[in-house]
Every structure is written in C-alpha cells, then in structure tokens.
Amino acid sequence: MSNGDGKIKLGVLGSGSGSNMQAILDAIQDGSLDAEIVLVLSDNPDAYILERAQKAGIPAEVIDCGGYKTRFPDESQAAVAEKLKAAGVEIVCLAGFMRLVKQPMLDVFPNRILNIHPSLLPAYPGLMAWKQAVDDGARESGCTVHYVDAGMDTGPIILQARVPVIPNDTADTLHARIQEQEHTLYPEAVRKVAASLES
Ligand code: GRF
User: Fold this and answer.
1) Active-site residue 117, yes or no?
2) Domain for residue 108, yes or no?
3) What is the atom index within ligand 1 of the atom nearest the CA of 19?
4) How sure is the predictor about 4, in pLDDT bands with cuts at 50, 70 and 90?
5) 2 domain residue, yes or no
6) Long-range contact pairs involving 150-157 (C-beta distance under 8 Å, separation at least 24)
7) Is residue 1 part of a domain?
8) How many whole angstroms separate alpha carbon 18 and alpha carbon 23?
9) What is the distance between the alpha carbons of residues 174 and 166, in angstroms, rounded to a whole number?
10) Is 130 within 8 Å of 171 (Cβ atoms)?
11) Ligand 1 atom closest to Cα of 14?
12) pTM of the predicted structure, to 2 decimals
C-alpha cells in the first residue's frame, strides 16, 4: 500500500518537541525508511513539532479541540481523521500526542495508528512513565511502539527497546536515555508496519 509512488504516507500527531517526528524524518532523509510525512498536526499551537514540520516543508496544522484542555472531542477526532484521509495518510504516528485517541479515529484507521511510549509496556502506562520507573526503584525501563486501541497504552506491541536504570538516575537522565532509544525504535517500527501492509 503506497499510493503508487512506493512511499508509504505518514501523518504525525504530536503535542511537544517532536524529536520522534524528527527521527522519522531523518530516517526518511537518509534513505533507511521508504516513507513520506505528508501532514503534521498538533493540539498545541506553540509545540515545536509544528516548527520542525514547517522547516522541513511539511504541511502542519493546529487541531481545534474546542477549548478542552485534555479531552479530544469526537468532532475534533472526526475532523482530524478527515484531514489525514484527504492527505492520503496510510499510517498515523502519535509522537508525544497528549490526548487519548479513540473512535472515530480508530474506525477510520483500524490497526493503522501507532504510538510510542517511554516504558516497557505493560509496565508504567500513563503520564511520565520514566518518573514512574525511577520512583518505583525499577532496574530497567525502556520504550515501546504499539498499535493504538481503545485503552490507554494498551494496544498490541510492535517493538520494544530496553534501557537500564543506572545508579543516581533521575527522572530526567533516564528520560533522555530512553529518548535516544526511541529515535531508533520508532523509524524501525514504522518500517515493520509498512512492510506488513505491503505484503
Ligand atoms: C516521548 O518520550 C514519547 O515516548 C512520549 O512523549 C515523548 C515525546 O517526545 N509519548 P517528542 O515530542 O517526540 O520529543
């Protein structure tokens, strides 16, 4: 599946820095991922992910969430699904997107929405997973790319990478090392999912 030009079309949703979006883009640019990011959407108008997209010449837009701080209303999800479809998106990558994606997006992109989470799921779902790991005294954490289902961080796992927790790790130092792994893992997971759609 690639709309005829050999490149799988990706849409990325993020709320923050967008370093994972950048890692996917870098993999595309160095030729290790045969894909194209066709649309970047953010619920946060100040998110750096929008600036990164603009710098790379990728269409980038703000999602209207109707003034809700954390909810992702059905109407907004329907509008987002429509925009992604209109752009020809085949795989949706959530990259630091802070709202829960549900129906109707899941209906429009069944098994086509991926998320990256900073822990070895099912351990430490939810917010600040790296801090949860440090607070819990875990000896190991990591990151997971998984399909999105109706739960929070519960969908089938695609790939994981392990990161040891080292003595004197703080939430921040652990998060930084997890992010390094994320930047390799996400492009690899997209490659895997794209290959599964082609076969
Ligand atoms: C990552 O740590 C990711 O696992 C989590 O949010 C963070 C996003 O970082 N879901 P970035 O915006 O990609 O830099």
Assistant:
1) yes
2) yes
3) 14
4) low
5) no
6) 150/102, 150/103, 150/106, 152/100, 152/125, 152/126, 153/115, 153/117, 153/121, 153/122, 153/125, 153/126, 154/121, 154/122, 154/125, 155/115, 157/121
7) no
8) 9
9) 8
10) yes
11) 12
12) 0.96
Residue 84 pLDDT more than 70? Answer: yes
| Residue nearest to ligand 1 atom 5, measured at CA | 96
User: In the structure, which protein residues have their CB atom closer than 6 angstroms to any atom of ligand 1?
Assistant: 14, 16-20, 95-96, 116-118, 143, 179, 182
- Report the CATH number at residue 13: 3.40.50.170
**Residue 6: what pLDDT?**
74
Calculate how far, in angstroms, residue 166's C-alpha sits from the geometric centre of ligand 1. 21
pLDDT tens per residue across span 11-67: 999 999 999 999 999 999 999 999 999 999 999 999 999 999 999 999 999 999 999
**Mean pLDDT confidence for 69-74:** 95
Q: For residue 86, what pLDDT is reported?
A: 98
Number of structural domains (the chain) is 1
80 within domain boundaries: yes
- Is the CB of residue 120 less than 8 Å from the CB of residue 141? yes
Domain carrying residue 20: 8-198
Q: How far is the CA of 20 from the centre of ligand 1 (A)?
A: 6
Per-residue pLDDT tens over the stretch 120-163? 999 999 999 999 999 999 999 999 999 999 999 999 999 999 99
